Amino acid sequence: MFFERHEGGERAILVHLEGQDERTREDPQEFVELANSAGADIAAFLTVSRHRPSPRFLIGAGKVEELQASVAEHEADLVIFNYVLTPSQERNLERELKCRVIDRTGLILDIFAQRARTHEGKLQVELAQLDHLSTRLVRGWTHLERQKGGIGLRGPGETQLETDRRLLRERIKQITRRLEKVRSQREQARRSRRRAEVPVVSLVGYTNAGKSTLFNILTSSTVYAADQLFATLDPTLRRIELEDVGPAILADTVGFIRHLPHKLVEAFRATLEESSQADLLLHVIDAADADRTSHIEQVVKVLTEIGAIELPILEVYNKIDLLDGLEPHIQRDESGVPVRVWVSAQQGLGLELVEQAMAERLGQDVMQESVLLEHAEARLRAQFYEVGAVVGERIADDGRQQLDLRLQRSDFNRLLKREGWQPDAFLRQHTLQ
Predict the structure, then answer these.
(1) Which helix (DSSP H) or strand (DSSP E) does residue 119 occupy?
(2) Is 205 annotated as a binding residue?
């Protein structure tokens, strides 16, 4: 990968900003979890009350001196800010603190770099890293001036900084072309699934809500699942069988987070499209999390950004084993449609209810019909048996075969059209009057 991360175990000082604006305030506990997920050895945690950020350092000069002393005391390798720094602020802080400084976006990018396993995932992370790095190139080249002339020293006529930016632009274009190819391949696979009328259910939710644990149990898979932020990065698709629905595709996707960097949303567009093109979203929520309402709002925000908010959503409240006196159950709306399921994926509680709710939501268009077939229509009878639609058969009084059918209306329509029938015309001629 073009931009490799440092090895874990670096001694880090965390700087959390407390401000008046609730919209931009970050969660300090989540900040600690992010740092731990990145493999940082947290030496100190500094909270700064700053209502009007300084253009030069973000924090005040007094806090910079306090931070200098803390870096020296703990021999820290790294200072991480729970805020988005401008390139100049990052550069100024590094000059004063004499160590590396990264912001919240850089921290999340580093975690993504560790988690990426597939070629596509690594490309997506690299694209986001390079995009982020391109605005900060000056940090690495401040000691260089225009390349010197003289015998053996005449340069190509551009500064080292300009050369590096040009190389970055070329690499970004190259990765973008590759990801467009991946996106095209994904769209082709989605078209194939649509032609086969296989419904897609996509797991979405705040990071560490338990999506991968639920995915593993429902699909009997071994996707990496851990109690850490962004344990899953690469999308995984598995085939499952749902009663009364038949085969379906379950997709596990990257978790969302507060103020997810826009660069990551853009870079992971191909991955997130698995959610935006799904037939049903399973919104997995940590029922025991005190901030679950805020996390739900963040997920809704990202779903809106990727154009998936209008899709049918089934909420799955996970980790009920951490709550007292709560049993697995399905909550329904006034029409009796499942809207919320309470389960514990880790303890295996209520998972059959998730499958039941999925089947009901996907199978709302399941039709039940009794049809009468002539003996000459034996091929059509065989087709109904082949798709598992026949739940009963007997001989009618007039000698025709009466089949009791139960299947998705889309499957019924597709099967008849393949045999040269219009569904409405077929039902008029083949049902009991």
Answers:
(1) helix 119-134
(2) yes
